[in-house]
Design brief:
Elements lengths: L1 E3 L4 E5 L2 E5 L7 H10 L4 E5 L2 E4 L1 H10 L2 H4 L5 E2 L15 H16 L8 H19 L4 H14 L5 H4 L6 H18 L2 H13 L3 H15 L6 H19 L13 H18 L7 H12 L5 H26 L10 H12 L4 H19 L7 H14 L5 H5 L2 H22 L2 H14 L5 H14 L7 H18 L4 H14 L11 H6 L5 H29 L4
Antiparallel strand pairs: 1-2, 1-6, 2-3, 4-5
Helix pairs in contact: 4-5, 5-6, 5-19, 6-19, 8-11, 8-17, 8-19, 9-11, 9-15, 10-12, 10-14, 11-12, 12-14, 12-23, 13-22, 13-23, 14-25, 16-17, 20-21, 20-22, 21-22, 21-23, 22-23, 23-25
Length: 557
């Protein structure tokens, strides 16, 4: 730090004693070296030798000013001492709420038919879910605390608690984040984003519809919603939002990005429901239905049943969200022309863009056809990432520094593990059995009974971190009670199978497309859940009424 008195400039450094920089020739070398260390370096150019740079001359001039001469004591600009006040790293109120809920459930005696271990795991799971919602700490940290609780209480072993870290979906989502880095870094994302803006960019709504229906067109060909949303449309949407100046890091997320991200997520649940091959768990529902009913569900029958409610939801969802969660920028009449100019500036494809295009082409191709040759979605994504790493389009340190990817991987895998063991410990079987007994004993018409079954099946998805887990645990039981109450078997099987995708709209963890869109940071968690519930009511109404009428026309009942 510099210390100024009437006639001298003193420099105090941690490694040097305080000393005056006088004009003495014998001290000149010391004066120069110390001044350099203080950032007041001398420079040449004078017949008398070295002169001081502007900062030092200004300091000396200031030292000779009347204000400084009025006092003979040094004026010291001391660095502020570090605060010794303790500060919590978590929001203790919200953390207390999460822990209190888990403790209350923990000490309630378990109902008849539920083991103590299953009940204790439910208590920790509910506490973790509340922590995920209230965010006393980052989501990954909350999930780690939940896993710690399961192991400290000996509810789960280490292998059980971390079992989902070997699951495909969390890793596919993390790799999708890293692939999106190459998509944006190479400039390919900007090029495609500008191209979309040039075609549809007069309004934010037009841009959004173009992405929604592009995703729906690809849905039948890519049997992984996590790959389709996280690996293709999330990177594209992010690049589009950034190109239009909507960036949560700059506080401009509401400009258009919040609306676009939430809408694309919601509609990804709809497109996944419309085709058997649009979501990895749909074939599981088909197999379970075939075993329960004794007749197969064909690809065509599923698509025909889903086309009307699906298209109604795809057409209406962007409009509803446009009203409920409007973007700040709605009309952009000059955007297409601006985008065309930016495309001209970009010129031909760069080498990095060509490499990224090839990597994505290989990855998407394997997502579509890889199952026929035994290559899963994660292997395909890793191949694409490997191409980008080897060619230096993406650096591994960029992947390591992607906090969103690692945080999402952590909390999503933790929730999958806890939800899976709730099923293994028998809690889901007990829950399903009680629902079956409840609905069967109401004596309602089959239409009313099926409505109750749908509501219970749909909203129990808050307990699940994947559609496959929900289908595997509850689909057969709910299908059985629906048919026992008189619901036509094929109608019940297809409706429950399709709604097994739609119910992913509820949370940040219920379907593979949720973590990347939510993890981008555009939509606050409270708003995510609020809008998810509102949209779920609309979707159920469409599937029951518009879908029901259509199913009557095609002969399902």
């Amino acid at each position: 730090m510099a210390v100024l008195t009437r006639h001298h400039v003193y420099v105090s450094l941690p490694s040097l004693p305080r000393q005056a920089l006088t004009a003495s020739a014998s001290a000149r070398s010391t004066r120069h070296s110390v001044a350099r260390a203080a950032g007041l370096a001398p420079h040449s150019g004078s017949r008398q030798g070295l002169q001081y740079s502007a900062p030092l001359r200004q300091a000396v001039h200031k030292a000779r000013s009347p204000q400084c001469q009025a006092s003979s004591r040094p004026v010291v600009a001391a660095a502020s001492a570090p605060s010794s006040e303790f500060k919590w790293g978590a929001d203790m109120k919200n953390l207390g709420i999460s822990v209190a809920l888990a403790a209350i459930v923990w000490f309630i005696p378990p109902p008849s038919g539920v083991t103590l271990k299953a009940w204790h795991l439910l208590a920790i799971f509910l506490g973790t879910i509340v922590g995920i919602i209230t965010k006393p700490l980052p989501l990954g940290a909350v999930a780690m605390m939940g896993l710690a609780a399961t192991m400290l209480t000996k509810t789960l072993t280490f292998a059980q608690a971390f079992s989902a870290f070997s699951s495909e979906i969390p890793w596919l989502i993390a790799i999708a984040f890293w692939l999106s880095g190459g998509f944006i870094k190479s400039g390919l994302g900007n090029r495609i984003a500008y191209g979309i803006v040039a075609l549809f960019g007069k309004t934010t709504l037009g841009l959004t519809y173009s992405l929604v229906f592009a995703e729906a067109l690809l849905a039948p060909a890519i049997p992984s919603v996590a790959a389709r949303a996280g690996g293709i449309f999330f990177p594209l949407a992010k690049a589009l939002c950034l190109a239009c100046g909507s960036d949560p890091a700059k506080g401009t997320e509401k400009k258009m990005g919040a609306y676009v991200m939430k809408t694309l997520f919601q509609t990804s649940c709809i497109s996944s429901a419309m085709f058997i091959t649009a979501m990895a768990a749909n074939p599981l529902a088909v197999n379970l239905a075939s075993e329960a009913l004794g007749q197969p569900i064909t690809w065509g029958a599923w698509a025909l049943a889903g086309i009307v409610p699906g298209l109604v939801c795809l057409a209406a969802a962007p409009l509803i969200l446009y009203v409920l969660y409007p973007p700040e920028t709605k009309d952009t009449p000059d955007a297409p022309e601006t985008a065309r100019k930016e495309l001209e500036k970009l010129g031909p494809l760069s080498l990095d863009e060509k490499i990224t295009t090839g990597a994505f082409a290989v990855t998407v191709g394997l997502w579509i056809f890889g199952a026929s040759i035994g290559i899963n979605a994660v292997a395909a994504a890793l191949l694409g990432l490997t191409i980008l790493l080897v060619t230096n389009v993406v650096k591994w340190k960029d992947c390591l520094g992607d906090n969103q990817a690692w945080d999402t991987l952590t909390w999503f895998a933790a929730l999958i593990a806890m939800a899976a063991h709730l099923n293994q410990f028998g809690f889901i079987k007990w829950f399903s059995g009680n629902v079956v007994n409840l609905v069967g004993g109401l004596g309602l018409s089959w239409q009313s009974s099926f409505a109750v079954i749908v509501l219970l099946y749909f909203y129990s998805h808050y307990l699940f971190a994947s559609g496959a887990a929900h289908i595997g645990a509850m689909y057969t039981a709910f299908l059985s009670v629906a048919t026992a109450c008189g619901t036509p078997g094929m109608l019940a099987a297809i409706a429950l199978g399709q709604l097994s995708n739609v119910m992913g709209c509820l949370s940040t963890y219920g379907i593979g497309s949720a973590p990347p869109y939510f993890g981008a940071g555009y939509v606050p968690q409270s708003k995510w859940y609020q809008l998810g519930f509102i949209m779920s009511v609309f979707y159920i109404a469409v599937w029951m009424f518009a879908g029901g009428a259509w199913w009557k026309v095609i002969g399902l009942w």
